[in-house]
Amino acid sequence: MTTKANGNDVDVFALDDDGAPAPAPVVTNLPNAVPFAFVTDPAGRTLYLTEAGPNAVASFTVSHDGTLTPRQTAATGQQATCWITAVGDLLYASNAGSATVSIYRAGAGGALTPIGTAATDPGTVDSAASRDGRFLYVQTGGQGIVDEYAINPDGTLSTIGSETVPDAVGGEGVVAV
User: What distance in Å separates the CA atoms of residue 84 and residue 86, rounded to the nearest whole number?
Assistant: First the structure.
């Protein structure tokens, strides 16, 4: 879990065999990072975190004891980098202040290779991918729009269209099923 600007912490809770979390987390403090959202690799050993403070995507190795070891930080060059979605080895970071999505390829050891950016409607917030990894849907709260993209083989995005969602201005949270 992240505490964003309320401590700039990432809290990692160990789980017992029944899935219950430990009573106390292992806390990693990231001064001025404003850790926001994260995803992990399929094995759960690499954490990819958006940092709204420096507007970056950072990778960390997650140790068995819950400690985080920094690997790489990649500046997005955008504003208000907050949400992140993983599709295979591709990472899509939403930049709320820039109306863009920053695209990275995740590699061995937490390497982050920038692929590019894609424009969205204003107020870029959350995103979700189709189950088959062929499409990305980006919620934009500025006008209550969901932007639709095809994910190209190289990870770039091709615009399909957009849909205005009734009463969704300022909304956060999207799921693709």
Answer: 7
Report the predicted TM-score, pTM, of the whole model to 2 decimal places.
Answer: 0.94
Q: What is the CA radius of gyration of the chain?
A: 16
- 134-145 as b/e, with b when 16 or more CB fall inside 10 Å? ebbbbbbbeebb
**Amino acid at residue number 117:** T
Please give the backbone phi and psi of residue 108, each rounded to the nearest 5 degrees, phi first.
-60, 140
| Per-residue confidence band for 173, with pLDDT thresholds at 50, 70 and 90 | confident
Site of tokens 């995103």: 127
The pair of structure tokens assigned to 112 is 């982050």
d(CA 101, CA 86): 12
